[in-house]
Amino acid sequence: xxxxxxxxxxxxxxxxxxxxxxxxxxxxxxxxxxxxxxxxxxxxxxxxxxxxxxxxxxxxxxxxxxxxxxxxxxxxxxxxxxxxxxxxxxxxxxxxxxxxxxxxxxxxxxxxxxxxxxxxxxxxxxxxxxxxxxxxxxxxxxxxxxxxxxxxxxxxxxxxxxxxxxxxxxxxxxxxxxx
Length: 179
Ligand SMILES: Cc1cn([C@H]2C[C@H](O)[C@@H](COP(=O)(O)OP(=O)(O)O[C@H]3O[C@H](C)C(=O)[C@H](O)[C@H]3O)O2)c(=O)[nH]c1=O
Hints:
Strand content: 35-45%
CATH architecture: Sandwich
Helix content: under 10%
GO molecular function, one term: dTDP-4-dehydrorhamnose 3,5-epimerase activity
Mean pLDDT: 96
Protein name: dTDP-4-dehydrorhamnose 3,5-epimerase
CATH superfamily: Jelly Rolls
Function: Catalyzes the epimerization of the C3' and C5'positions of dTDP-6-deoxy-D-xylo-4-hexulose, forming dTDP-6-deoxy-L-lyxo-4-hexulose.
Distance between the termini: 23 Å
Oligomer: single chain
CATH class: Mainly Beta
Enzyme class: isomerase
Largest sheet: 5 strands, antiparallel
Bound molecules: dTDP-4-keto-6-deoxyglucose
Low-confidence stretches: none
Catalytic activity: dTDP-4-dehydro-6-deoxy-alpha-D-glucose = dTDP-4-dehydro-beta-L-rhamnose
Number of domains: 1
């Protein structure tokens, strides 16, 4: 076994492969993608009067389509009542950052970075009180987000579009990992 020089030895650590921190109420659902030589097909959601199968307690009241320019960051959005269910197509690639800022949550303070798209088809359920932001990781292409919400958008006293600064969890959370 080699021994390392003093500066490498001082900086040395073993990669941490332990499971990532969970956030209470945050769910990731893998979707089936049926592909053939002609293309691919994915069911995003089956709805029974707005209730989404496989996501108990979530009732879709609006569906949105959002486009982000290359490398753009939208962060952080924080809802008091609204749950979001996000989908980024497998052809795109984005970094979703979620942080639990609920005062009474067992996972309060946990921050997770989740790559969306990038060949995978997944829904991500983001409960109220979990701040969320996204970066388009593609340097030359717009990224699409399709998302369901259970509160209809309004600009009156019912508006639930809270915001936190983009660097609330530190600016480095948006950087590509270097390890
Ligand atoms: C959310 C929303 C917005 N708007 C109008 C209001 C503004 O004139 C314009 C941009 O609104 P906003 O700056 O809130 O949009 P985004 O920054 O793209 O954010 C939205 O998309 C990201 C991904 C989120 O997660 C947010 O929750 C959602 O607000 O669209 C509407 O007319 N209806 C709507 O449902």
